Every structure is written in C-alpha cells, then in structure tokens.
Amino acid sequence: xxxxxxxxxxxxxxxxxxxxxxxxxxxxxxxxxxxxxxxxxxxxxxxxxxxxxxxxxxxxxxxxxxxxxxxxxxxxxxxxxxxxxxxxxxxxxxxxxxxxxxxxxxxxxxxxxxxxxxxxxxxxxxxxxxxxxxxxxxxxxxxxxxxxxxxxxxxxxxxxxxxxxxxxxxxxxxxxxxxxxxxxxxxxxxxxxxxxxxxxxxxxxxxxxxxxxxxxxxxxxxxxxxxxxxxxxxxxxxxxxxxxxxxxxxxxxxxxxxxxxxxxxxxxxxxxxxxxxxxxxxxxxxxxxxxxxxxxxxxxxxxxxxxxxxxxxxxxxxxxxx
Length: 322
What we know:
single chain; eight-stranded mixed sheet
C-alpha cells in the first residue's frame, strides 16, 4: 500500500552559524521517519551529474571487463550483477553494482586503461560525500548528547580498518517486461551502516520507505510504503542500524525498497549512487540504556549478515516444505 508522506528537508547552508537549528531538524527527522532530504550541501548539480556519467560509462563496459574486479565479500568492494538476495524476497535484486572503498582495495578498482578517469572522479566524489556526512553526523552526535566529534573519529577514512563505501548502482532496462510480485529492483531492507547518502536522477524513481521500526534487530515490516522522490541535487539520507543501536533505538533505521515499475510506467534503466557511512571495524558501538553492552562495528556488521543468512535459510526451508 502506497501512502504519500512529507519528508523533512535539512538545509546545511551557513552550517557553522546554524548548527543548533540543523541539529534540531535532524533529530526530528531521524526520530520520526529515519529518512530526510538534504539541500544546500555543497555538492553542485553538475558534480552529481558528472559522477552519474562516470557510473554510466562503467556499467556500459562489457561484463568481462567489469568482472576483472568482481565483488570481494570479505573486503566489501568490487562489481556484482544479479547477485544480491534479500531475506524479504528470496530472489536476486534486478540490478548490478560496483562498491568502492578507501583502504586496502586498490586491486578492486577498474584500471585507468579499462575505465579512464573512473577512479579519480569517484575518489573526488567520495571525499565530497565524506565531508557532507561528517557535518550531519556531528549534529546527530550533539542531538544524542555525545561530543560533537564523537562519530568523526569512528568513521576515519585514513585508518586501515575504514569501511566507508561508495556504491554505484544500475537497475536494468526492463521496458515491456512483467515480473512476478516477489521480484524487486531492490527488496525491502534496512542499511547496516550509520548513515546513508543516496543520489538518484530525476524521473528515475521507485524508492519507497516504510516507517515504524521499533528495534535495530527487528525484521518486522509494515504495509504502508511511501515514495521518496527528491528534486535534482537533493540528497536522500537515511538512518542506519549502527546509529539506531548507538541511540538506543531513538533514531529510526527503517525498511526501504526499490519497486519494479509496471508496464505503462517508466521502465528504463535507473542509476543511483549510495555513500554508506560504516564505522571503522575497531570502533565500539555502545548505547547508554537499552544497549549498554559494547560491540565492535566489525562484529556488528558480521552479526547483521549472519541474521540475514539465517533469514534466507529459513525462507528456503519454508519454500522446500510447501
């Protein structure tokens, strides 16, 4: 069921002088819906368009070229196609993606020969995303009663255990095709990270969110989904599971998905860019009341993946029993 909602727009202009106002707005958006738009963030529309073109050019390469840097799950970097399966659907998402990291993944970047300018442009864009992310996380730290720099040291891209990631996504052209109801461009899921920045192109919609999640370990999904349709240049941000735990479930990491368009709707390709702020592996995630036990971010991600794996196995077992 689709339901229209109004999502808060966070204005980052005059950041140093408006930090208290921005913090207030961020806390309202993060505790109520977990999704919000960010404007006046400092990344120009032209720079976003350039990164989309860079991503488009990479995905236009033959699969055998992209496969030179196939996804390394241990390092969470590289290219995959029709390989991500969500517990919410049990089938592969209708997309391909390439994940790009800051540390220890030099061999998983496309070469300059295969993809001229790809690494240079991507690294520039990643730094811009990092800068915006740290402004938002500084305000969220203040809102949660932490020191302003609390999250900055825990998302340090200069450290070898950095897990910050840019993911370029390409949802395939399905013009004129129909799919069973269990097929999605991206099945319902939450993000395991602290905060996600998402860029999408005008007219290439489909992202939907389902507010109402109460606990960071909860798989429950409601039935009221609302479309997310940002204007060009606006960043869609969402709270992730890590900071939901840090906040003792005050900030909401809600389920979201990318709907498969029907015949008669725009079914052409969809491109998006997602910057995942994942705390350094050694960073300690610890709440003050509900989650006082300490856990490293590395273990947190492993536990989340283990829960997903168990959910998938249960789904397969149920299907086999029918």
